[in-house]
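Self-study notes.
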Amino acid sequence: MMRLAVCDNEIEECILIKRQLEKCGQNSPSETCEIHHFTSGEAFLEELRKDSGAYDMVFMDIYMDGMSGIEAARAARKLSPMLELVFITTSREFAVEAFQIQALHYLVKPVTLEQLGTALDRYRQKKGKIRYLEVAQGRNMVRLRFSQISYLQSRNNGTDIFIDNHVLHVNLNTSALIEQMDGRFLSIRRGMCVNMSFIKRMDADQCVLKNGEIVLLSRKERADIRRRYREYIFGSVAEEEVL
């Protein structure tokens, strides 16, 4: 069963989105949905304090009286790290902030059934896919979850794999490793591939990683790199309105 929450200070909006989500759920009869709604971020957080695992996803409005949706989402993530966030709002101005707290999706009102269905599909795909990279370390094989890997970088005829707070060096060609990675990884220059969730900010000719490192983008591939990054952040949001 999928446990969903809708948080919007307009009760009419809560009910509308709840009904739309119920219709989306009817398209997947093998999976039931339990949907609750809240008219403030404070009320939603109070429920999480009682049970941090109460919900799998929350559809959160950004413009609310009292605590904003962004503030509520940050607090919710601390209480429930596995909670998936989908922002629903009237403006795209907070889209970058939404990505920085790793929102699953960002939707602009009026929201359609198709958009809500896409958000639910993203959740199902994310929960259904935990991918690994296997590399040799001496006589042993080490399995690394893709979500653990911050980036790969060529060095000394091999590859440095940056994982959380340490670096693993393997005697494998970086290009060969990149071919095994999934769509969250982006080659930003020759010999360097970054998990896009590890990018703090991308500018016209460089990106800033979450560890503070500034990396120049490949001059030849710069436009395509920015396009892929925008698509990763915003999904169906029109690319010309991002960054």
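Second protein, same conventions, sequence then structure:
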Amino acid sequence: MEDGNLRISNDSFEYPSNIEAEQALLGTLLLNNDSFDRIREIINEDHFFDPVHSKIFELISSKIQKNSLASPVSLKPFFDNDKSLDDLGGASYLVKLASSAISLSGAEDYAKIIFDMAIRRQLILLGGEMIDKAAKINLEEDGNQQIADAEKSLYDLAEIGQNKGRTFSLFVKAAAKAVETANFAYKKGGGTSGLPTQFIDLDKKLGGLHPSDLIILAGRPSMGKTSLATNIAFNAAKEMMKKTGSKSTVGFFSLEMSSEQLATRILSESCEIASEQIRKGDLKEDEFKRFVESAQELESMPLFIDDTPALTISELASRARRLKRTDGLDLLIIDYLQLVRGSSFKDNRVNEISEITQGLKAIAKDLNIPVLALSQLSRQVENRDDKKPQLADLRESGSIEQDADVVLFIFREEYYKEREKPGDYDLEAIAKWQSEMSELHGKAEVIIGKQRHGPIGTIELSFEGKYTRFGNLAKNYY
């Protein structure tokens, strides 16, 4: 302790390492180049503690990948004038490594030991960086932001093992994954290879919600964006539980509504009691019993709600990573995009939205999950005779449209027609209006404005306002 500040000296401990494992691995590779194929996805030269061992491994790797022989003899010329080997005995050290190799089959085990030591050293360095950063007072970065940055660094470190060698991928590997996805959809009867929404026509058009996709669900106020999002969350978790026997974890960031309000909507849909009645407590005895039973049935539903307001995109990403790590995560929903804040001050809102949409797309790819983000539409929709939304109606539309894989619009013409009711004195107009309202009642449209992997078009759904519930519209071919 010095001047009230904590000081940690790196001299107080030794960095974790296993020199013997490094020597054993290098010796094994020099005797049997074929062993390289078993460890090439586990480690690289940066994972070695001894810089000389790192250089030797880099040369072995380079030789083997060029289909050349890597042996003490072929590597010797590279070290004849290199003083880095002098302390170890010169170029003869290569012969010593090869002759001391214990087991030609232990390469993978040695590599895992070396990798583990490297991760431990990285943790020590990361801890030191966190201490240094926390000790400095930065007006542009508060403690919460530093926590978010630290969690991201820890998550990235944890992912290293899964992403090693993940640069270019052979086409045959990518093709195998594509066949696996198609086979999964085929076994399910066709039509859906992603996470199902249980909306038949929507699943047919989209093939379900796919990992790494950013899906934007946009609409004007009162169109039912949140209702549709909660329906999708509930349906996806329930459907996957029924078909696979495993729970699909859904994370829901509700930046506008409280968790209690969101839960009320889901319970209203489940027990078929108007959410207004639930809020007021205006329930009959049998309705209250049904409400409690629905709540008990949904207790095991893996839906996690975070209603913290005004989250930054980095905090949101950090919490999503934490949920993925602790409980798993199959679908992430954000309600809604314009309430998320940028990580730092931006000179204008368009740049801030661009940072947010890029951050959401990064979450989808990093966590390999579909991310469904709700978005408001601009007021210009109200100024047109045709109120159906278009891509240009997205607020700060450039980055949203560019970064999204799928853009969906929710539209209920009934909402607008209801506000066009003529005066009671005009009987002919009233009769026409009533006929049109009857035709539109309980119907909603989901317009696919953009889809990278499939067609665009319009899907018709049913809508029950009192239960805030969307459903499949009855059609002859159903």
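Instructor comment on the second fold: The first strand starts at residue 214 and ends at 219.
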